């Protein structure tokens, strides 16, 4: 606790009493620490690709461009790192938008089956690349949602499912109605997540295995964005996972009627 005290003095310097304020600072400290960590993370994540782009282009300008092989391989690195930077900037802008207090989604009756199919189409090349089989267990459901936001949520979950699975495995997508709400599940047979990591999963920049996840191309912001988007729909997200067996993300959404 922090304690503040101040006398309350009325007309003619008359003492009326004392105001004492007890303030709980552990929560404030925790929030301050989260903010500091976030700033440190953003700086680190932005600086890494910039340093690499600068370093490789400087080396090329110093003369390395004359060797065609070096030129090509350095250009490739510069291109990859610029893409990474772009993704990071987009995700940061997106996160700051969805985290705002007044953020609202444009919700109306939406065919969830169509959303799921569209999301699969959007990442089809990643699915094909890893010879992953996508199994649909779907019934027609109208949810109350913003189609573009829901596609974004599904794409995020599906990309993760593909990224953290080995090739030739199965990803099952379920869509059903239970207790008057829509349930969407993305079930993978991937590496899984330790129980102790699960509660931190939705934190900004949190990654279970920093190096591996970073190399996989994600920004570490995807699940934070998913959580905010689903909460803006008055829904919720749950994770269930077993290391070595796989992970299930479950989303609950309100029905349209
Ligand atoms: P990233 O861009 O690193 O994938 P996310 O916010 O989408 O960031 O996910 C955070 C972390 O959660 C990932 O780095 C990964 O460690 C873990 N994760 C997310 N989805 C899965 C999954 N389906 N299977 C295993 N681990 C996952």
UniProtKB/TrEMBL annotation:
The keyword Transferase applies. Its main location: membrane. It is found in: Cell membrane. Its EC number is 2.7.13.3. It is an enzyme of class 2 (transferase). It comes from the Bacteria. Keywords: ATP-binding, Cell membrane, Kinase, Membrane, Nucleotide-binding, Phosphoprotein, Transferase, Transmembrane, Transmembrane helix, Two-component regulatory system. One of its GO terms (cellular component) is plasma membrane. Residues 41-257 form the Histidine kinase domain. It is a multi-pass membrane protein. GO terms for biological process: cellular response to phosphate starvation; regulation of DNA-templated transcription. One of its GO terms (molecular function) is phosphorelay sensor kinase activity. The keyword Transmembrane helix applies. It catalyses: ATP + protein L-histidine = ADP + protein N-phospho-L-histidine. This is histidine kinase. It comes from Planococcus versutus. The chain holds residues 209 to 465 of 465 of the full protein.
